[in-house]
Every structure is written in C-alpha cells, then in structure tokens.
Amino acid sequence: MQTEKTVIAPLICYDQWFPEAARVHALANAKIIFYPTAIGWTPQIKKEEPFSAQRWEDAMRSHASMNAVFTVAVNRVGKEGKMVFWGGSFIADPFGQVVARASATKEEVLVAKINMDLCHESGEGWRFIYNRRPGEYGGLTQ
C-alpha cells in the first residue's frame, strides 16, 4: 500500500511465521511491515513452550533484518478465556534492533520516530535482497 511517504504492507497474525510473506512485500518495495496479532500464553503453551514470547520477537526482528524493512509487531494485552496476551508491541528497525516497545500489561499507543534511511543502509550492507537466488527456490512452490 503506497502512502504519501512510503510503501507499507499490512499483513496478519499468522503471516509472521512464514518468511515468504515479508520477502514478497520487501521485493514490492515495502519499507514498513505491520503484523497485528493476538498472541500469548495458554496454560499448555506456557508449560510446553516457555520460550514462545522470545520466539515471536525473534521472528519479527528477523523479518526486519533479512528484508531491510521496519517491522511493527502489534499485540494485544490482557486476557480472554484461558489466553493471556503478551502485549509488548514493538518496532524493529531494518537491522533487527528494537527501537520502541509498548507495555506488556496495559493498553497504550506506541509512537516512534523512525529513520527511513536505515532501510537503504541495511539493504546495502549485507545485500540479502540482492544476493538471493530465486532460481533455486523451485521447491518452495511444490
């Protein structure tokens, strides 16, 4: 989606677990990818996967770094049924560094000033987008 200042890609919760969605949008010149989500602990997940919150954050930060984009990971707070949401919405820069973070327990609006030049700097540094080899990806579509 083209805005006045840049291209954004609003994806959804489950898209965060697949690298292809972020890459496709980065190739389409997106500079900010939003991932609104509702993720947290159920009693079973908290017991069996106590590392899940970190896994979620790592995935979002990786999308930013590997695609030279900002990722905006938006998450609910509070509780619904047995689900306790992690909250902790954050913005990761194109190097994968968290530049702003919201509360894990209270509703709030997270606003941050971001430097869009970082997309170019990150993209030119490791050149992940440019050095890819699409001819080798045939197996992804089978």
Q: Which of globular, elongated, flat, extended, rod-shaped describes the shape? A: globular
CATH superfamily: Carbon-nitrogen hydrolase
Number of domains: 1
CATH class: Alpha Beta
Structural class: alpha/beta
Separation of the first and last Cα atoms: 29 Å
Give the low-pLDDT segments: none
CATH topology: Nitrilase/N-carbamoyl-D-aminoacid amidohydrolase
Cα radius of gyration in angstroms: 16 Å
Helix content: 25-40%
Task: Give structural notes.
By secondary structure, the chain is of the alpha/beta class. It has a single domain, classed as Nitrilase/N-carbamoyl-D-aminoacid amidohydrolase. Helix content is 29%, strand content 23%. It contains 4 helices and 8 strands, in the order βαββααβββββα. Strands 1-2-4-7-8 form a 5-stranded mixed β-sheet, covered by helices on one side. Strands 3-6-5 form a 3-stranded antiparallel β-sheet. α1 runs parallel beside α3. The chain is globular, with a radius of gyration of 16 Å. The protein starts with 7 loop residues before the first strand and ends in a 16-residue tail after the last helix. The model has no long low-confidence stretch (mean pLDDT 94).
